[in-house]
Amino acid sequence: MTDAQIRQSKIHDISHFGLRLAVGSIFIAVGFIKFDPSFAGYLPQMGLPADLQYLFALEEFVPGILIVAGVLTRISASVLSLVMLGVIFYINKASQFIGPNGAEHPIILLAASIVIITIGPGRISVSHLVKKIPRYLQ
């Protein structure tokens, strides 16, 4: 009775999958938009070389897919956390919380990614179905 345990229920599994689905879908959509050649025109305005367009697209698109599927979830969420830290401190300059260039959305996505790192893929995931993937890779 001295240690607390999270009750494993169907609602817990569904809500955990819902969080992964929401976060992954956002990153898939944003990453997909960055494949458009017109995105390369925005990078020099932010002080970044235009050659990095596909790297920026892939670093959001691929982890988003992996998070939704529940494969390499912690690693993918870690990559996305680093991306969000870059957005908060380099792109938005952490100058304001709310406003046109506010950091509220990247902070929410950072917090959700940290939650995914902490709780892992959950039972509604490919990792749970395979059961041979080591826990630290889930």
Secondary structure layout:
Blueprint: H1 10-33, H2 53-69, H3 73-91, H4 104-119, H5 126-130
Helix pairs in contact: 1-2, 1-4, 2-3, 3-4
Characteristics of this structure?
138 residues; mainly alpha; 59% helix; single chain; globular
Write up this protein.
The protein is an all-alpha fold. It has one domain. The protein is built from five helices and no strands. The protein has helices at 10-33, 53-69, 73-91, 104-119, 126-130.
Low-pLDDT ranges: none
Overall geometry: globular
Number of continuous helical runs: 5
State which percent range the strand residues make up: under 5%
Structural class: mainly alpha
| Residues in helix, % | 55-70%
Radius of gyration: 17 Å
Distance between the termini: 29 Å
Average pLDDT value? 85
Largest sheet: none
Q: Tally of extended strands? A: 0
Work out the count of structural domains. 1
From N to C, what is the helix and strand string? HHHHH
